[in-house]
Write a structure and sequence with these properties.
By secondary structure, the protein is mostly helical. It has two domains: 2-99, no CATH class; 111-495, no CATH class. It has 24 helices and four strands. The chain has a two-stranded antiparallel ribbon. A two-stranded antiparallel sheet has the order 3-4. α22 packs antiparallel against α24 (469-495). The chain is globular.
């Protein structure tokens, strides 16, 4: 009965979405939603009606948890703008079924002085939230714009300028959110394209895919990196050097070199000289110092073994709150703090929390272990074959679906696979890296593969430039293939 009520509540929830966001009271708009779209909108909620039937026939928790997770994934595909709400619909179902309770979802366990988060990793949530706030202040200080303009001034041709801007976008994305990076750098690309009287589409595509690539380089670069750290207990410094060998950061940088060379081949035809761009006046350097302090603090926590798994989040939040207080009383731009809070990416925070709980449900019900056993049986004990398979699968999936839930589900599976196959510790981490690399870079193939891509295409559309699927793929696919090949070869070489 409770699950039946949950399904009814979901139908009401969808109706509210359509009423508020689609303005159903406006009859002409209502008729634009044809019966096929309405069927798709209501299908995921109707699937929950099957769960009481599954319970009646005594389906195990393994099947029930799998069903809920797949239903949530279907929600992600249909409701791209409501992923957090979709994940929490699944969380409610997990609670009602009885797979998890509040302690298993939100609690913490200490085993031999090691902190283990049962469901939600609050340290990761703190790192993500604090970093996002500081990065937002950094963007609003206009320092990134000034730095990009300085770099462009040193370029001899427009093609080289775009390559420099793309590389700079990647550099910023190692510590800032990808979408914010695209929004900051895009106006510069538009200025250059307008003066040359050419389409800015290739320029914005290059900026977006470079941002996506570098997001995997550090712990604070992108949600998949944060999820990787949460599942493997990697510290900030271990993204650079781990187990006596170069880690994910250097793999991504080599991949970036290959990707930038691809962009060079594509953009070398733009030989026009760069016109002088008026320099931006910055608001303050303080957010830049705060971002540096945050990065240094995370590094020191790792170096001196100061409990990174519980202290990283509080450190980021303290610096973030300090930055907001400073901005409020020193900058005093009317409404800025409210705007920062209003524009903050709460959806991703709640999405991460919801997915952490859903994956905990998959783990408790035995789904992860069973999927890992099946995949490891197919691969045998062949590390290289498994690595290539996980990389290609991650790259293909992430070209068409959101990489956050995919990475959250697959990294625990890869770790369990390594255990089943009897792999060494470096090989175990290598499989997790395969998923992180494939998922982060694979999103560059299509315009729907990553949020930064969608934003770039949206900006182009706003300016009157329509970007076709094929036009994006012509740049994104070769960039992705070269970058993934080089990064994967690096990991195989040092972590086999």
């Amino acid at each position: 009965m409770p699950l039946f009520l949950l399904a009814i509540w979901e139908l009401i929830y969808i109706g509210l979405i359509l009423t508020v966001k689609k303005n159903w009271f406006n009859l002409p708009l209502q008729y634009k939603l044809n019966k096929h779209k309405l069927l798709l909108l209501f299908a995921p909620a109707l699937f929950y009606l099957l769960i009481p039937l599954m319970q009646y026939y005594r389906f195990s928790e393994l099947y029930l948890a799998s069903f809920v997770f797949l239903n949530v994934y279907l929600y992600f595909i249909i409701f791209e703008d409501y992923r957090a709400l979709a994940s929490w619909c699944g969380v409610i179902a997990i609670f009602i079924i009885g797979i998890l309770n509040l302690d298993k979802a939100f609690g913490v366990e200490i085993i031999e002085q090691e902190v283990l988060w049962k469901g939600v990793n609050w340290n990761v949530i703190g790192i993500f939230t604090g970093t996002m706030i500081v990065a937002d202040l950094f963007m609003k200080s206009k320092v990134p714009e000034l730095l990009a303009e300085i770099f462009i001034a040193r370029a001899s041709t427009v093609g080289l300028a775009i390559i420099i801007v793309s590389a700079f976008s990647g550099l910023i994305s190692a510590v800032c959110e990808n979408v914010a990076t695209v929004l900051i750098v895009a106006p510069i690309a538009f200025k250059i394209a307008k003066r040359l009287k050419v389409s800015p589409a290739p320029f914005l595509i290059a900026i977006a895919i470079a941002s996506n690539l570098e997001g995997a380089a550090t712990l604070i670069g992108d949600p998949p990196s944060i999820i990787l750290a949460a599942n493997t207990n990697m510290t900030f410094n271990e993204f650079f050097w781990f187990l006596g060998r170069p880690s994910l950061f250097f793999a991504v940088q080599l991949g970036a070199v290959g990707g930038i060379y691809v962009l060079y081949l594509l953009f070398k035809k733009y030989k026009q000289p760069v016109e002088k761009i008026e320099k931006t006046e910055i608001i303050s350097w303080i957010p830049t110092y705060l971002l540096g302090l945050l990065t240094l603090g995370l590094a020191l926590l790792s170096i001196f073994n100061l409990g990174f798994e519980i202290t990283g989040g509080p450190l980021c939040m303290v610096i973030a709150v300090g930055g907001l207080i400073w901005w409020k009383f020193k900058i005093s731009i009317k409404g800025t703090i409210r705007k920062i809070i209003r524009e903050f990416d709460f959806e991703t925070v709640f999405l991460l929390m919801g997915i952490f709980i859903l994956v905990a449900g998959l783990s408790h019900s035995g789904v992860i272990v069973n999927v890992a056993k099946f995949l490891s049986q197919q691969a045998g004990n062949n590390f290289l074959l498994t690595f290539i398979f996980l990389t290609l699968m991650s790259m293909i999936f992430s070209a068409f679906i959101d990489n956050v839930p995919y990475v959250t589900a697959m990294i625990p599976i890869s770790l369990t696979m390594a255990l089943e196959m009897g792999l060494s510790l470096p090989q175990t981490y290598a499989l997790a890296y395969a998923i992180a690399i494939g998922a982060s870079i694979g999103g560059n193939i299509t315009p729907i593969g990553a949020s930064a891509n969608i934003v770039a295409v949206g900006l182009l559309k706003k300016e009157g430039y329509r970007t076709s699927f094929i036009e994006f793929v012509k740049i994104g696919l070769p960039f992705t293939l070269v970058a993934t090949l080089i990064a994967s070869a690096f990991i195989i070489l040092f972590w086999h």
